[in-house]
């Protein structure tokens, strides 16, 4: 494939890959192995396109999901009377 055709193919694939990722998040879960495969595939596509901002946003969203989960875990650990474990999670994830 020529470079121009390849870039067009990548651009045409992105909306489908984003749709697949969103569907996987809705039907499965954000951390399901197939959802993570969709994140990886979309990231690889964005990297191939040279879309570094899109790549940053994709991984930034995943990072925020992790931070939200960690924050919830800190709250649950405190409520369960495990403040030292809560402090460890808080320090590790910066929440």
Q: Topology, pairings included?
A:
Elements: H1 3-27, H2 33-49, H3 52-79, H4 83-93
Description:
The chain is mainly α and 95 residues long. The protein is 85% helix and 0% strand. It contains 4 helices and no strands. The protein has helices at 3-27, 33-49, 52-79, 83-93. The longest helix is centred in the last third of the chain and has 28 residues, at 52-79. The chain is elongated and about 60 Å long.
Give a brief rundown of this model.
85% of the residues lie in helices and 0% in strands. The protein is mainly alpha-helical and 95 residues long.
- Helix/strand order, N-terminal first: HHHH
The portion of residues assigned to helices is over 70%
The coarse overall form would be: elongated
Number of extended strands: 0
Give the strand content: under 5%
The low-pLDDT segments are: none
Give the termini distance in whole angstroms.
47 Å
Describe the sheet with the most strands: none
Please identify the structural class as seen in this structure. Answer: mainly alpha
What number is the mean pLDDT? 85
- Count the domains: 2
By DSSP (H or I, 4+ residues per run), the number of helices equals 4
Using only CA atoms, what is the Rg? Answer: 18 Å
Protein traits:
elongated; mainly alpha; 2 domains; 95 residues
């Amino acid at each position: 494939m020529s470079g121009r055709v390849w870039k067009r193919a990548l651009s045409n694939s992105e909306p489908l890959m984003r749709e697949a990722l969103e569907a996987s998040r809705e039907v499965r879960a954000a951390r399901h192995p197939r959802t993570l495969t969709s994140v990886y595939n979309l990231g690889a596509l964005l990297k191939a396109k040279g879309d570094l901002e899109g790549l940053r946003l994709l991984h930034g969203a995943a990072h925020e999901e992790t931070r939200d989960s960690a924050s919830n875990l800190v709250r649950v650990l405190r409520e369960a009377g495990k403040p030292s474990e809560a402090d460890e999670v808080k320090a590790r994830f910066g929440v």
